[in-house]
Design goal:
The protein has 17 helices and 17 strands. By secondary structure, it is of the alpha+beta class. Strands 2-3-4-5-6-1-9-13-12-11-10 form an eleven-stranded mixed sheet, sandwiched between helices. Helix 13 packs across helix 16 and helix 14 packs across helix 15. The longest helix has 26 residues.
């Protein structure tokens, strides 16, 4: 059996199972009505008596909350552990889970000091010189209480509470663990990876179950455990509207593709790293996140290859978000987008935005694979080459040729490679911002007329198409193939070969120079043999 030679071969012929699923989900759990000093002031005045309002009134709430935690641990015989500095909490939770006898319950309660946002009182003076308390935003190192537990529907998770006002919390669970329990409930046979699925008797139903992890299910899961665990707010306060809500802090969108043989996964990564690092430059791959980057844009933009042992992984960072590709446990290709800030994609942090973010996340994973696949399958027929490098007429419109090697054409097609990654297409101003630096121009030199001319050329040659009802364009399949062929051939063949042949300082024993000299000698011998005199 011959081995696949390209990424396209691996994806097309050697993937036995595909799954798109949420992976690690980390949610902020907060009190929306207690986010400002003024709101805290009204809460304390309404629920904790008259007189001057200050953070001293929070002490009684905190003491009662901590006592409730101690009583809960004693009543349910749950161990309370103080985490050591640098201790891996997940490893400790795995040990407790391995010996846990039931299907649902709290494993242990962990305690650690962390810096959190809170409120404090500062003294102020009025016009008469009298001192009065004033509540202000602040930060403090306070104990965080981690409730590590297991749920019959969601599997292992933790819910942690801050021990100080306004008692913010965080919920963390894993979408693959949720999926495994849903498969088991329906009696569908499967073989698991450490954090994924290796095989399944009903892949279609498995994907449907993964898609069923909706915001409503997550909210029900959160409410269920908040009702079971100690809560710092009384029933009366919750009835008055002081109830927790959830927002997205970190969400991982994973595409897992199981391959039939481990060697095929290694071939995938060898080809990806060899062929796609030039497409993965920060100024290129950041476009996958559909955000224009300028010098004033904060955050890091980089591409890295990370090796753990002998297994490489590819990381592409954009601000606080990241795409990661790696070969999982020698069985599966994992392409994973981790979103830390949905606002980078024009979405709010509310859990209600999870479906839209999920769609964008999985489209992003597919787009990365499509670009990696296309980059190795860019052979172009002679007919297509002639069409592109010659003038083209469509109806009454005429487009000039896209000459191979022309600096402006090469820059234009190089930009198309980047724009192929945009989920919603690109606009003319995006073209201006990226083509001008490639040609050494100031963006202001690229007027709307010049941009319109270039966009018309690309459109009439079939390399881009307009998104109906908008001023955006998307790169066609024909466009990405032509752009990759022009870019790769020019960068890897045409430009280096000419440099080797024509450079005065290039050594005489260079491979291309030797080949050209041999060709000249053969031509001279042929001319001598047929008695043809060379031109003067």
């Amino acid at each position: 059996m011959s081995l696949p030679r390209t990424v396209a071969d691996v994806i097309a012929s050697h993937v036995t199972l595909e799954l798109e699923s949420l992976d690690r989900v980390y949610l902020n759990v907060y009190q929306p009505k207690l986010q400002t000093p003024r709101a805290v002031f009204y809460f304390l005045r309404e629920h904790y008596g008259e007189g001057a309002v200050s953070s001293h009134q929070m002490k009684a709430i905190t003491e009662q909350f901590l006592q409730n935690i101690d009583d809960y641990a004693f009543e349910h015989q749950i161990e309370v552990i103080t985490f050591a500095k640098g201790q891996r909490k997940e490893d400790l939770a795995a040990k407790y889970l391995a010996t846990f006898p039931g299907t649902e319950g709290v494993l242990f309660i962990g305690k650690a000091q962390e810096k959190v946002r809170t409120f404090r009182t500062e003294g102020r003076r009025n016009e008469r010189g009298e001192t009065y308390p004033w509540i202000v935003d602040s930060t403090a190192m306070v104990n965080q209480y981690y409730f590590y537990a297991v749920d019959e529907d969601f599997g292992p998770f933790f819910l942690k509470y801050s021990s100080y006002f306004p008692y913010g919390a965080k919920l963390c669970f894993n979408g693959h663990e949720y999926l495994k329990r849903q498969l088991a409930k329906e009696g569908i046979g499967y073989e698991e990876l450490a954090n994924g699925i290796l095989s399944c008797d009903n892949p279609r139903r498995m994907q449907s179950l993964a898609d069923g992890l909706t915001p409503r299910r997550i909210e029900r899961f959160l409410r269920k455990w908040q009702d079971r665990l100690p809560c710092p707010f009384s029933t009366r306060q919750q009835t008055a509207g002081y109830r927790y809500e959830a927002s997205m802090c970190q969400v991982e969108f994973a595409l897992t593709q199981v391959v039939d043989r481990p060697v095929h996964g290694r071939i995938f990564f060898e080809e990806v790293l060899r062929e796609n690092l030039d497409l993965g430059r920060p100024d290129t791959m950041q476009l996958i996140f559909e955000h224009r980057v300028t010098k004033r844009t904060p955050g890091s933009f980089r591409t890295r290859v990370v090796r753990e042992g002998v297994i490489p992984s590819l990381h592409v960072d954009y601000k606080s978000n990241r795409i990661k590709q790696y070969f999982k446990e020698c069985h599966a290709l994992r392409t994973e987008l981790t979103v830390h800030n949905p606002r980078d994609f024009g979405l709010g942090r509310s859990l209600a935005n999870l479906p839209a973010l999920r769609e964008l996340g999985f489209q992003t994973n597919r787009r990365v694979l499509r670009v990696q696949t296309t980059s190795q399958d860019f052979a172009m027929s002679e007919e297509l080459f002639r069409e592109v490098t010659g003038p083209r007429r469509v109806g009454d419109q005429r487009a000039s040729a896209l000459r191979f090697g022309d600096p402006k054409v090469q820059a234009l097609l190089g930009v198309l490679v980047m724009f192929r990654l945009l989920p919603c297409g690109f606009r003319s101003r995006d073209l201006r911002e990226h083509i001008a630096p490639l040609l050494g121009d100031d963006p202001s030199q690229w007027t709307q007329g010049r941009l319109t001319y270039q966009l018309r050329r690309l459109r009439l040659h079939g390399l881009i198409e307009r998104v109906p009802g908008s001023t955006r364009y998307t790169v066609t399949e024909r466009g990405i193939k032509v752009a990759l062929w022009f870019s790769r051939c020019h960068a890897r063949l045409f430009r280096p070969a000419l440099g080797e042949l024509l450079a005065d300082e290039f050594p005489d024993d260079a491979p291309m120079r030797r080949a050209l000299d041999k060709f000249d000698q053969e031509v001279d011998r042929y001319l001598d043999r047929v008695k043809v005199q060379p031109a003067a």
